[in-house]
Amino acid sequence: xLQSFEEQTHPLSDYEKRMSPFVADLVExxxxxxxxxxxxxxxxxxxxxxxxxxxxxxxxxxIHQLRTSGDVPGLIATGGGYLVATSEAQLLRYEETLKGxxxxxxxxxxSIAHQRRALYEKAxxxxxxSIFDDIPEE
Length: 138
Known about the structure:
The structure is a single chain. By secondary structure, the chain is mainly α. Helices cover 59% and strands 6% of the residues. A hairpin with a 2-residue loop joins strand 1 and strand 2 (81-84). Helix 2 (14-28) crosses helix 4 and helix 2 crosses helix 5. It is flat, with a radius of gyration of 20 Å. The two termini are 29 Å apart.
């Protein structure tokens, strides 16, 4: 789980587990259509066709699980939505996109670590509470 994102990174709830096969089915229809399915369309169809009321973050959590578990091989995201890649070239492009995002996040993390050390190296004997620490009640 990620700190401050526990709800989004917590293992799937029972509700999300029940919803997951329906999300997989919707995404897998893109193989036949060749068009991505948007989050909005996915959420609408989940509600209308299967009675699942969900949110964008919850849908992304299920998509992440489907992708990382390999339950839907080739599941990628584009600006237009989610789809199952039908070629190695599509998967390679998506890999490169993810690598770029990964590199950008790493650069931001390293920069913040450097800034923190520069700003607070003298204060490290008595550090101030961070937003992730429990703040004592007064």
